[in-house]
Amino acid sequence: KLTTSNYLRHVESMAKVPSGAGSIPHLNAVILGESLASEENDLIFPNVEFSGQALVSSPQKYLEMYKRSIEDPAGFWSDIASEFYWKEKWSKEVYYQNLDVREGPVKIEWFKGGVTNICYNCLDRNVEAGLGEKIALYWEGNEPEFDGKLTYNNLLHKVCQLANYLKDVGVKKGDAVVVYLPMLMELPMTMLACARIGAVHSVVFAGFSAESLAQRIVDCKPKVVITCNAVKRGPKVINLKEIVDAALVDSAKEGISVDTCLTYENPTAMKRENTTWKEGRDIWWQDVVPRYPTNCDVEWADAEDPLFLLYTSGSTGKPKGVLHTTGGYMVYTATTFKYAFDYKPSDVYWCTADCGWITGHSYVSYGPLLNGATVIIFEGAPNYPDSGRCWDIVDKYKVSIFYTAPTLVRSLMRDGDGYVSKYSRKSLRVLGSVGEPINPSAWRWFFNVVGDSRCPISDTWWQTETGGFMISPLPGAWPQKPGSATFPFFGVQPVIVDEKGQEIEGECSGYLCVKSSWPGAFRTLYGDHERYETTYFKPFPGYYFSGDGCSRDKDGYHWLTGRVDDVINVSGHRIGTAEVESALVSHPHCAEAAVVGVEHEVKGQGIYAFVTLVEGVDYSEELRRNLILTVRKQIGAFAAPDNIHWAPGLPKTRSGKIMRRILRKIASRQLDELGDTSTLADPSVVDQLIALAGV
Ligand code: 6R9
Question: Are 407 and 434 in contact (CB under 8 A)?
Answer without folding.
Answer: no
